[in-house]
Amino acid sequence: MTEAIDVDLCVIGAGAGGLSVAAGASQMGASVVLFERGAMGGDCLNVGCVPSKALLAAAHAAHGADVAGRFGLDMTVAPTDWRRVREHVRGVIAAIAPVDSVERYEGFGVRVIPAHARFTGPRTLEGGGVTVRARFVAIATGSTPSVPPLPGLDGVAYLTNETVFDLDERPSHLLVLGGGAIGCELAQAHARLGCRVTLVEAARLLGPEDPEAADVVRLSLRRDGIDVREGVSAVSVGRSGDGIALTVNGADGAETLTGSHLLVATGRRVSFEGLDLDRAGIATDERGRLVLDARLRTSNRRVFAVGDAAGGPQFTHVAGAHAGVVIKNTLFRWPARADNAGVPRVTFTAPELAQVGPTEAELRSAGTAFGVLRWPYAENDRAQAERSVDGFAKVLVAPNGRILGATVVGDAAGELISVWALAIAQRLKVGALAGLVVPYPTRAEIIKRVASSWYVPKLFGDRTRALVRFLMRFA
Ligand SMILES: Cc1cc2nc3c(=O)[nH]c(=O)nc-3n(C[C@H](O)[C@H](O)[C@H](O)COP(=O)(O)OP(=O)(O)OC[C@H]3O[C@@H](n4cnc5c(N)ncnc54)[C@H](O)[C@@H]3O)c2cc1C
Ligand SMILES: NC(=O)c1ccc[n+]([C@@H]2O[C@H](COP(=O)([O-])OP(=O)(O)OC[C@H]3O[C@@H](n4cnc5c(N)ncnc54)[C@H](O)[C@@H]3O)[C@@H](O)[C@H]2O)c1
């Protein structure tokens, strides 16, 4: 016999989005049921952000030995013991997992049901032998790798982010299909850990990013020995001995690349298969995405969507922000709206590439009036001391001084970008950042220096010089 329960909120999916909704709502007094058919923590913890950043940390440590000569040191790293690196990655996941665990959520009073959920009516769901009637529902079912329909692909054991972190052995030659965030991060991680890597990108590396910033990342990937092929499309896949043959087509014609492994990193898609959305009267568009309003409500006003399932930017911090919108709308009847305008993003290559607000190209194509402020890492003393001077900050400023957007590429760009995110969210003008006193020597000085450059033409111009000369007469 199925158990039937009534709750305030039913959450489908225990990834970054679903967990944030469940944790917030339950601690604020709502009764919450959380369905998860796989691992608690979803993609970010298990097969996404966390393992990729852990692998990159190992890769950057190995790279440290490669560049030790810059510091007058000689260091060598023994060939990578892949299983030990894999254990490191698993160890990082295990260290974070308790935060996302069933036990912790049960501690909040959440009923966690380890099963696939599906709608049976506008406000009812079932899964794991439990029927749930909920006042509100949050769909937080995430996304999965979007694998292109390449002839021959199904005949080979290709990798995605769901399998690449589980390899027993170091790939001798990794072919990476796709030069977005996943492709670039994982290409560099593997290259720095001693794999030969070829990266194939149909368009341009990190396409939506500022091209000048992407150039800095491209150069770094090439310095790491990655064979970066852009403007090259995959045509078919086949076997080649023990390995994989990837046939590509570009300006120079067709070519077959062979490698030991193939990682497919060509984007992610949302799918609501098996959720029976029609039973709840939830509409999707022609591409199968949920039709949502600004409050993240589906066409069934009691059902919301958060995170990747919402069909917008795919980031853990966006999923977290969505959770806040849903909690306000459901628990407090506060018509909060999701706003992606000031959401920062970071690609965690070395150097990191971070963006908040529109890029220079986006502002130009929108016809917005703006000026560009720049500051190179090479003029930052900390970057010089650490011999890591590749990169720059570029800040886009309205004629009245308001900060519209910022691009940073370089070490710790992901840390620096939050200051500009705050500036944009609070509609600050450059003066607010130019006036900051920041500790020396830190990369944060770049924030102050680039903002101060707004005033340079005025401050060090003829009028100021004339004024100072005049005032000095009376001093
Ligand atoms: C390799 C990689 C690296 C990434 N790195 C970063 C990064 O550095 N920074 C960043 O911000 N973002 C990163 N992302 C993106 C980030 O992982 C996602 O945006 C984030 O995980 C989305 O969270 P979510 O809760 O929407 O979905 P998910 O984490 O995918 O969680 C959805 C959950 O729902 C469950 N589910 C689905 N359907 C049902 C059902 N019917 N019943 C029950 N359960 C169901 C799934 O099992 C899953 O656990 C990365 C992604 C990848 C793939
Ligand atoms: N640091 C981070 O925050 C981070 C890291 C990884 C992933 N993510 C999230 O995950 C999402 C998915 O990442 P992704 O890198 O898979 O997707 P993506 O959409 O960013 O990049 C996919 C790339 O693959 C290329 N491509 C598609 N089909 C191809 C083909 N047949 N041949 C060659 N190239 C092809 C595209 O031109 C594109 O550049 C990202 O949008 C991002 O939101 C975030």
UniProtKB/TrEMBL annotation:
Positions contributing to NAD(+) binding: G178, G179, G180, A181, I182, G183, C184, E185, E201, G267
Ranges of residues in domain Pyridine nucleotide-disulphide oxidoreductase dimerisation: 343-449
Disulfide bridge partners, by residue number: C44-C49
Domain FAD/NAD(P)-binding: start-end pairs: 8-323
InterPro entries per UniProt: FAD/NAD-bd_sf, FAD/NAD-binding_dom, FAD/NAD-linked_Rdtase_dimer_sf, Pyr_nuc-diS_OxRdtase, Pyr_nucl-diS_OxRdtase_dimer, Pyr_OxRdtase_I_AS
Cofactors demanded by this protein: FAD
TM region positions: none
Cofactor, how bound (note): Binds 1 FAD per subunit.
Keywords: Disulfide bond, FAD, Flavoprotein, NAD, NADP, Nucleotide-binding, Oxidoreductase, Redox-active center
The family this protein is said to belong to: Belongs to the class-I pyridine nucleotide-disulfide oxidoreductase family.
Name of the protein in question: Dihydrolipoamide dehydrogenase
The species this protein was found in: Thalassobaculum fulvum
Organismal lineage: Bacteria, Pseudomonadati, Pseudomonadota, Alphaproteobacteria, Rhodospirillales
Gene name of the encoded protein: merA1
